Amino acid sequence: MPSLRIVLCPNCSLSLRGALVFFAILGVFTLGIGAVFTAFGLWPILLIAVAEMLALGWALNGSLQRRFQAEIVTITESDVSIELHDRHVCRHVVFQRHWAQIKLSHPASRLHPTRLTIESHGRACELGEFLTDEERRGLALRLRRAVGRVNESPPLAVGHG
Description:
Distance between the termini: 16 Å
Number of domains: 2
Helix content: 25-40%
Strand order of the largest sheet: 1-2-3-4
Shape: elongated
Radius of gyration: 23 Å
Order of helices and strands: EHHEEEEEEH
Number of strands: 7
């Protein structure tokens, strides 16, 4: 039975090693400056430098956690299956292809991103939260072609996933 598989992953170009090197170099520089000011009696600057490094470490950790995120959409003749992977959690949602609707919601403000969801029978699953609006629009178009409208299931054209 033919199927179409689309794998979505965030762009995480910073490697663990690169993040550690960046953090170490910035830490030596920042804490070194803080130590110099502490030698002159301005110890609060060292506390601020430590707080900055803790905030940077927290932000880098959050960025590196995205490496484990993935969304896999599999479309068969009968189903639209979505696997949402995170570091520790894998969620699996299945919709009947015949009733699935692809919706691209436009926000009230231009400052907020669009939202791409697959919906059916009161359930919804958001896809591509980490994509740009342009990538999300392209994905919506591709999914609409593959899934079709409600009560319509076009022939499944298997292509590159």
